[in-house]
Amino acid sequence: MKFKDQWRFVRSNMKRSKSRVFMTVLATAMGVTFLIVLASVGFGLQKTFVNDIIHDRAVTQIQIHGIDTNDDYALITDKEIEELEQIDKVKAVTRQRNLAQIPAYHLDNYETFAETVVTDFPSEFEAGMELTEGALPDSPYEVVVGSDFAGTLYQADVAEDEDLYNEEGVLKDKYAYADSLVGEKIDMTVEKGEGDEIEEHTIELTITGVVQPPAREWIQDQYMYISDDLLRDIETFTGTPRGANIDPDYPKSTEELTGYNNVNVFAHSLEDVQEISEQLSEKNYLSYSAANELKEINVIFTVAKAGLIFIGTIAIIIASIGIYNTMTMAVTERTPDIGIMKALGAHPKKIKQIFLLESSYIGLLGAVIGTIVAYILSILLNLGIPFIIESVFNNELPEGFQFSSIPFSLIAISTVICLIVTIISGLKPAKRATQVDVLKAMRREI
Fold first, then answer.
1. What's the pLDDT tens digit per position in 103-117?
2. Do residue 418 and residue 345 come from a single domain?
3. In 390-432, at which residue ranges do the beta strands (DSSP E only) sit?
């Protein structure tokens, strides 16, 4: 008997008991839907948290906090920067140090005091530093500013008793600088000396670009970013490391002023991060990468998803009782047909295949219907859950929050589980069909 003939026999016999088959398929579909929707919560929350990490920090970035010296830790210096750049698979090493004083900045009739960060622009560019407008500096007296720097500039001629800020601590629009900063000349004023003996030094700078805003809306980037060449100019004036207007030996040593505050190593790809991190650990570097956090989160969610899939599988196992009952009834009702097939020389293995084909077909139908329903429920959950939480609990979920997600792998796993369970459910009835006595079957006895 060819597969085509087996399929025709199965279809014709299933039509005789439409109601029973429909209810069996419905029960199977409900089990599959329950499994997919339940597990999709794990996939959805994992996707949300992973995207949150990726969105917040570059996954190829490794933060270097210093070097472990057993008793304490030391800051990274130029010597270590050269060593880090020589590590295999390192794309770039960015380094920043804060100017040891907060200069005053003047632009036309506007002024502000801003923390100033000394950065290596070539390495920042190689690491993927992005600007919302303008370009990176080409000369020592060109700078870029943070996305919120313009919001700190206020009119210098405003009376002291004037209230510059609103209740939220934000500079009022009528006093704030509203134009683009790119291409503008701005004066930086640094100081040296103590007490009444303070000497000022003003340097004219050109703003060439504005750094892209931080991923998090609550993070404010109000920094001025300058080059190492400009730092050396400031150090020449102050006579101290990093432009400090205090004793260079205070409060600890010059190492505290010459070391870098922020050092980041960037790998070429996410796969290289782990290998680089291991090398850094061997060299006693204190490092952290978002990839480590991703790995830990993925392990937790993998265990959670496995548990949810297991619980969902129980629903399909319960539905398999109906499949077993349907197939048992099918064998009983088709006893005469089985007897005729045996009398015509049909091999018991072919008869067994027919009933396993029918149980598999029921399972496949249930998987398809269950998947479609699960997708619909997933969409409704993603739309409804945020609305319920925001309206009932007055809590706003983060942007991009996804409660349920159904990847193809979950569909594949659910379908395979459903087929395995349904085939196992049909094994005993199929075996029973091969044991039917021909003579009794022909007399319609069993």
1. 999 998 899 999 999
2. yes
3. none
